[in-house]
Write a structure and sequence with these properties.
2 domains, 26% helix, 17 strands, Rossmann fold, 7-stranded mixed β-sheet, Methionyl-tRNA Fmet Formyltransferase, Chain A, domain 2
Length: 325
């Protein structure tokens, strides 16, 4: 089949590589978001999918909006049979959806109809789900609601961050997407409508969502910090400055049981504990405002913690649980 692949960030790279290597399909072009500022210097850089397409000698289309007439004309001229999509990052108009005769087919990182939306992996970790996966479905105008061609499942490990889980799903999902392309090509695969039950939504995590409420149970703080890693990063306030918090560890054996929510304690073994609503957790990696990430023990030594130090929400701002209860 003639394919036009649409994707933007690094999570789409495994799928693009598999389709480029497939002897059954010809990736005739790639659609990606326009170049944007990136990194500490905020230099204009092409997104990862653009760079891989350039390496492979594949033409790239980067419309500001997929409804732009020039883009629709270029896509029509390419005459793709199907357009596979992985994390493209823009809504597709009906005019674009109608161009390939096999439609647009999306790889989504959840078991639909659960966690429809922009942040399915983060919301999966935040919800404490034991099982997740990836789904390949036919795109239709409503968000993530189209019929499903196939799924692959994946266990959520107790220490998984969103980044860990997404990396695994990107690899397994890439092979699922390629198998779906094969099935569409030979006519052996039919999409099945999503069930009406079990629908949930996964909006993008906001800064308020990942502000830690230390009065929550330790398990909720654990889920929140893992869900927000690597981005956007769970955070709290320490001495009136923002402090990002990486994944914590539940069950601080040497911490005092009476440690109040948010109260810090530097332990004899060099670890740093924080009180929560049910018991202390151990800090792993932290990132003080204006600095790079560091081990909590190194940060605590430099900060010279006292018995009065506490982690808080900013004055006047309620901490958000992000639904992690």
């Amino acid at each position: 089949m003639r394919l036009v692949f649409a994707g933007t960030p690094a999570v789409a790279l495994p799928s693009l590589r598999v389709l480029i290597d497939s002897p059954r399909h010809d990736v005739v072009a790639v659609v990606t978001r326009p170049d944007r500022p990136a990194g500490r210097g905020r230099k204009i850089k092409p997104p990862p999918v653009h760079l891989l397409a350039d390496e492979a000698g594949i033409p790239v289309l980067s419309p500001e909006r997929p409804r732009d007439p020039d883009f629709l004309a270029a896509l029509t001229e390419l005459a793709p049979d199907c357009c596979p999509v992985v994390a493209y990052g823009a809504l597709l108009p009906r005019e674009a959806l109608a161009i390939p005769h096999q439609g647009w087919v999306n790889l989504h990182f959840s078991l639909l109809p659960a966690h429809r939306g922009a942040a399915p992996v983060q919301r999966t970790v935040l919800a404490g789900d034991d099982l997740t996966g990836a789904s390949v479905f036919q795109i239709e105008p409503a968000m993530d609601s189209g019929p499903v061609f196939g799924v692959v499942t994946e266990r959520v490990r107790p220490t998984d961050t969103s980044g860990d889980l997404l990396d695994r799903l990107a690899e397994s999902g890439a092979h699922l997407l390629a198998a779906v392309m094969d099935g569409i090509d030979d006519g052996t695969l039919q999409a099945v409508p999503q069930p009406a039950e079990g629908i949930s939504f996964a909006p993008k995590l906001t800064a308020q969502d990942v502000l830690i409420d230390w009065t929550l149970p330790a398990v909720a703080v654990d889920r929140l910090t893992r869900a927000a890693t690597p981005a956007p990063g769970a955070w709290t306030m320490f001495r009136d400055r923002r402090l990002k918090i990486g994944p914590v560890r539940v069950g601080a054996q040497n911490a005092p049981d009476e440690l109040a929510p948010g109260r810090l304690a530097a332990l004899a073994d060099g670890t740093v504990a924080v009180g929560t609503g049910t018991g202390p957790v151990l800090l792993g990696e932290v990132r003080p405002e204006g600095r790079g990430p560091m081990k909590a023990a190194d940060w605590a030594r430099g900060a010279r913690l006292t018995g009065e130090d506490v982690l808080l929400a900013p004055a006047g701002a309620p901490a958000g649980s992000g639904g992690a209860a």
